[in-house]
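Problem 12. The chain below contains 462 residues. Write out its predicted structure in token notation.
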Amino acid sequence: MRTAILNGTLVSAAETLPYDLYFDQGSILGAVPRGDQRFGPPEMSIDATGKYVLPGGVDVHTHLDLPMGAFNASDDYATGTLAAAHGGTTTIIDFVNHARGESLLKNVEAWHQKAAGRAVIDYGFHMTVAEASPQVMAELPAVVKSGISSVKVFFAYPERLLLDDPSVFRVMQRAADLGALVLVHAEDGPPLDILVEQARGRGEWAPINHALTRPEVAEATGTERAIALAEMAHAPVYIVHVSCARALTRIVEGKSRGLTVWGETCPQYLCLSEDDLRGTPEDPFAGAKFVCTPPLRPKIHQEALWRGLAQGHLDTVATDHCPFNYVGQKDRGRNDFTKIPNGLPGIETRLHLLYEAVTQGKLSLERMVEVAATAPAKIFGLYPKKGSLLAGADADLVIWDPIRPVTLNAQSLHMRVDYSTYEGRTVPGSPMQVYSRGELLIDRGCAKAAPGRGRFLARAPA
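Solution.
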């Protein structure tokens, strides 16, 4: 059905225009000055007076249905992707988990089974690599050929995921040969384990110790190592969830040398702080709700990260959405902060918080679209079908109401988790309607699409 969004203001990463937008059969036909009839009379029209028309958000860092010890992340593909749609995100890239000794391809198949018949929006996968064994290296070409053109390695979690520098280097070289991008969790992990054991030995069990035992220098050092290894491997590198100023400085240095280095940050590092981990005077353990890795930092880092986003030193904002309920999951660590599962809910609130920053003068509206939709789509091989308003792109669209405030709380949000990290925070704008491939998903807060319509996005190597 040929549909026109009329009288709105179109916002891309490059410009803001008072244009009408037409789409049909799931694809954008084009944008034209208001009143231009080149596409003929629409069969349906939507009045977007006073609204912004944005490309659907692209969140390239999520963990849905992720196994974590005795339980899984509380959002699966049905609940998590629906929550994403409520927040204006129409595409995600989730992480396929991998454990040492396991087959990459068997894990890929397991994640397809998690998503099939459940996802509301379109999705892709990254491949986590927990070892550089001969079997893993032999399977990487098939993983890339299957449409997963990005892999993630860790400098942290020695007992489960950490790769040493030679292994990371081999993965980077192989990925570069295959046209795949390597993502790095860049915390220098082994010294952190010593700090954790020392804190436990002193009887320091409260959630704040999660941050105190994972200092900024570990992330800065890991970021520098990741960039150095990528430089030697002649490979691009993407640093996930940048949380602090010193890590950002390392990214800026890498970019200044002409290296292909991308940096991602997350709303929690822009909007929350180490203070949240201290809980309340009545209940210090309430800080467990805010345990994530890397940890939340002192507030002074927020200014540096916002500035890095505005100036183009950081390239994307993703969520690292990995929710666990406070009751029954997070509270397993009431007497030991190391037993609190790491992760926060955020897949639904990313655009709300970025738009709030726009109204505060921290970002331009165009830059918001760039870091939340266009740049992630470009970096991960989804552009221009995703993250754009160009003719031929998928009609993944958000009609954003700039004066429709929403109060963020666990009861009103749609993530399957029993708390909100932004409880009681009122943000100034929110989606009026959300479309995926031309299909209306969300209409004024009401879901209109059923689980299972989302498609797997096979991404070609670079």
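Discussion. The chain has two domains: 3-54+387-447, 56-379. Students who got a different answer should revisit the alignment rule from Section 12.3.
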